[in-house]
Automatic annotation (TrEMBL):
Protein name in the entry: Biotin carboxyl carrier protein of acetyl-CoA carboxylase
Domain of life according to the entry: Bacteria
One GO cellular component term noted in the UniProt record for this chain: acetyl-CoA carboxylase complex
Alphabetized UniProt keyword annotations: Biotin, Fatty acid biosynthesis, Fatty acid metabolism, Lipid biosynthesis, Lipid metabolism
Region of interest (Disordered), ranges: 48-89
Native species: Palleronia marisminoris
Molecular functions (GO terms): acetyl-CoA carboxylase activity
One GO process term, biological-process aspect: fatty acid biosynthetic process
Pfam families in UniProt: Biotin_lipoyl (PF00364)
Biological role: This protein is a component of the acetyl coenzyme A carboxylase complex; first, biotin carboxylase catalyzes the carboxylation of the carrier protein and then the transcarboxylase transfers the carboxyl group to form malonyl-CoA.
Length: 161
């Protein structure tokens, strides 16, 4: 490899790092094939600062129950959607689309029954539309992502019941 191709590779890697920062991504991976025995495989990643994810929420005290009646049950705080056993997570970084094309009906809505392998949504990654299938049959309990929203690898997309 000549110094010129080395300089181009360094410039390419710097451009990838810039893309990573500008688009607020955590990782990019690219493989360039130059010739049969000459290629460049690059993985650029960055660590996200771990900020505390606590929110303060003021919950007014429940009114006291009249004597002789049990106190009302406290509502459970919602758990992290990714830890739900029915969570369907993103297999890649990309942009979520809930319908096959703009203006079309969404693939699914809350309350729908889906079969294993049925398309739930599309994630666009590097100009490729990837249909995300249902990992199992069930009922759509919650759709967590919005149409056109960016997602990271492993982010919860929806919850099947």
């Amino acid at each position: 490899m000549t110094d010129t191709s080395h300089d181009r590779d360094v410039a390419f890697i710097q451009a990838l790092a810039e893309l990573l920062r500008e688009n607020d991504l955590t990782e990019l991976r690219v493989k360039r094939e130059y010739a049969e025995a000459d290629s460049l495989d690059v993985r650029v990643s960055r660590l996200q600062p771990q900020a505390p994810q606590q929110q303060q929420v003021h919950v007014p005290a429940a009114p006291a129950a009249p004597q002789g009646q049990p106190a009302p049950a406290q509502a459970e705080a919602p758990a992290d959607p990714a830890s739900d056993p029915g969570a369907v997570t993103s297999p890649m970084v990309g942009t979520v689309y809930l319908a096959p094309e703009p203006g079309a009906q969404n693939f699914i809505k809350v309350g729908d029954t889906v079969e294993e392998g049925q398309t739930l949504l599309i994630i666009e990654a590097m100009k490729t539309m990837n249909h995300i299938p249902a990992p199992r049959s069930g009922t759509v309990r919650e759709i967590i992502v919005d149409d056109g929203a960016p997602v990271e690898f492993g982010a919860p997309l929806l919850i099947l019941g």
